[in-house]
Amino acid sequence: MSNETEAAEDPASQARVDVSDAAAIARWTAALGTTDEALLKAIQVVGPRIDRIKDYLGAGGAAGDQVDA
Q: How far is Cα 53 from Cα 25, in angstroms, rounded to an integer?
């Protein structure tokens, strides 16, 4: 199991997506079961932390006011 998969399955994971690494983006999209576009949009809205990205994606991308602290 990859680090990304483990983090994706952990609801409290504060792992971060390295947006400068195309391979990391690919691993995270696979682990989260989403598209590159959806992942990058989530990162723009809530930041690179996996727990926040999962919340955003789980809310259908409608978690508009969250920000990365």
A: 13
Where are the chain's structural domains? 3-58
Please tell me the distance from the alpha carbon of residue 62 to that of residue 26, in angstroms, as a whole number: 23
Tokens of 6: 């483990």
0.85 surpassed by pTM: no
Return the ∠ at Cα 28 (arms to 45 and 60), rounded to 5°: 45
- What pLDDT, on the 0 to 100 scale, is given for residue 30? 94
50 with 8: CB under 8 angstroms? Answer: yes
> Per-residue pLDDT averaged across 34-45, rounded?
96
Name which of 67, 59, 54, 63 is nearest 4 in CA terms.
Answer: 54
Radius of gyration of the chain (CA): 11
- Looking at residue 4, its pLDDT comes to 83
